[in-house]
UniProtKB/TrEMBL annotation:
InterPro entries: HET. It holds the Pfam family HET. Residues 158-317 form the Heterokaryon incompatibility domain. It comes from the Eukaryota. This is Heterokaryon incompatibility domain-containing protein. It comes from Stachybotrys chartarum (strain CBS 109288 / IBT 7711) (Toxic black mold).
Amino acid sequence: MDSMAEFDETCPLAEGDFAAVASIQAHILEDCPRCLLLYTIARSVTDAADIYIQDAIQAYGTSLLVIREGRDNEDYKVWDLFAAADSPKLVPDLQHRVLVGDFSLRESLVRAKTWMSDCVNGHDTCKPSLAGSLPKRVLDVAGNTVRLVETDGQSEDYLALSHCWGDSRPPCLTVQATLARNMREIPWETMPNTFRHAIEVTRDLGFRYVWIDCICIIQDDADDWRVEASKMASIYQNAYLTLCAASARSDDGGLWPAEAVAFSQAVHIEHAGMTYTVYYRHRDNTSAAHFSWVGESEWSTVKEFCPVVSRGWTFQERLLSPRLLYFSQGEILWECGERTACECCFHEEDGSSRYMAQTRVLGDILRQMVQSPSQEAIARYWHRLVSFYSQLDLTFGKDVLPALSGLAKVCAAVRPGDTYLAGLWRGGLVEELCWAVRDYDGKSKRPEVWRAPTWSWAAVRQRVWYPKDDSVQTYTRVVSAWTELAGPDPTGEVTAGAVVLRGPAREGVIVTGPGATFDVAVGPLTLTCRSDSPPDATVSFGGDTKVLCLRVKTAGPDTLREDFILVLLEKEEVERSYRRVGMATPSTKESEECWLGEECREMEITVV
C-alpha cells in the first residue's frame, strides 16, 4: 500500500517535510490517526514547546518519528515506531515487530538455528566447506563436564567466542599451574558468566567443541601465546560459528543480561472506539545496539551499547568469522556474508546502506581487498582497515600488531612476495609512510612501553588515516627497511626496526607548538604539521628545536595537489638517525620554492 494514500491534502505531514507541532495538534481534530500517533509519541519524549515533526516513512521505508527543536535547528532525534506482532495497527504502514528485552534462550536459539541453516545451505558467499581443522586446544563440552583437550588438528566443527575480557582474571584461565587441572575438568564455579553461557549455547546448538582464547592459550607461557596468537586468522576463519558477547564489558557480564532490558516504551492511543498500543525507541540507541554504521559523532553511543566493537582484539575476530551470532541487549543478531538479521526485525526491514551493520561494511572491505586484482586498490583497502582499527582499545599496548596479525595474513596472501613491516608493506613503503594522526583528543602520547618504530602508525596511540593514496610523483625512495620480530610470527610483535630513506630534505625550526599541530619555519615558508603525539618523555620540543623535513611525495588532483613531508627529529646519540614526530601536507604550489636552492639537498637518513 502507498503510505501516502492515508494522507488527506490538508494534513501537515502530507508533503513529507517538518511540520510544527501546533499544526499537527490542530489536525487531530480532523480525525487524522497519523497526526494523533506522532503527536502522542512526540509529547511522550519531549515537553519542548517549539518542536517540528517529520514522518520519515518515505525516506526510510519504515515508520520513523523525527523531531527537532526550532524551525532552523539542524540537530534532530529519531524514533522507531512499530506495533507488536499480531496486534492492530493505528496506521497501515506501521510495521509489526517482535518485542525484545525479556530474553528467552530457547526461542532465540530456534531463530539462530534457522539463520545458521539458511546460511550453510543457501549462501554462496559464505562458502560453506568441510569441517575446519581444530585448533591446538579446544574446550570439550560434551556431557555434563567441561575440559580442555589437545587435538591433532583433526577435522571437526567447533564454535569460537569473541568477548571483552575486562579487568577480571577468572580462576579458569589456563596458566602453567592450572593446565593439568583444566585438562582433567574445569570446575563450573571457576568460570565467569560469559564462558558459562557460551558453553550452554554450544551444547544447545548441537556442537561439542568451543574455542575460548584465555583458556585455550597458556597465558603465562610467552612462546605458547605467540604461536597460538599467530593462528588467530585460521581459528576464526575455520570456526563454524562465532559467538559474540556484544554488550558485556567483562567476562562477568554474560551473553545475555541477568534481568530484562527495557528496550522500547509503549503508548496506548484511543481512536475510533479502539485502543492501539504503539511502541517507540530512540533510533540512535537502536542503531548502536545493532552495531550499525553511525557517524563518528555517535561512536561513543556505539561503545556504550556494544563495547565489544571498541576492542582491538575483537576487530579481526568479527571480520574473519564466516558467521557471527551476537548476543546484544535483550536479543540476538546474525551476520554472515549475505545476511544481517535480528529478532526485532530492525535489520531485516532497515538494511539500507544508511544503517548497514558495521561489521558487514568492514567485511565488504576485506572481501574487496582479497578479490582485487590491483595492488593499488589492495593498499587502499588495507589503509581503511588500519584507520578503523587504530581507534580501538587495547589493554596491553604491545598487542597492537598481534591483534591485527590475522588480517595481515589475509592481506599477505594477496600481496605475494611482499614483506610486512610493523603494520606497513615493503612493496609500497613510500606510500605506507604517509599516514597522519586523524583524531586528536588531547590525551594521546607515545606509549610508555615501546611497541613499534616511529615510522609506523602502530607507534602512536591514536586514530590514523591516509589522507591521499593517489600519488602523482614520489621524491623519496626506500634504500632498505627491516624489523626485528619478537617471535616466529612475521605479522606479530616487533622489538626494533628502521627504514633508510633517500630524498630531498631541508632543515626547519619549530616555532610554535607542540599540540595537535605545530609550526615549522622552513626557509620562507611556515609549515603547519600534524603532530604524531604531544610531547612526553621520548619526544620533547624546546625553543628553536631543529627538525629535518623530508619531501616524500606529491598527491591529489591538479587544483588540490599537496606535498607530503615527513617531519623528523634527529636522535642525539646517532648521527643521521631520526625519529618521526609529524606530517605536513602543504599545497604543492605553496611549498615548491622550499625545495629549490642550496638549502635543500639530497640526503640518506635512517628513521627508527
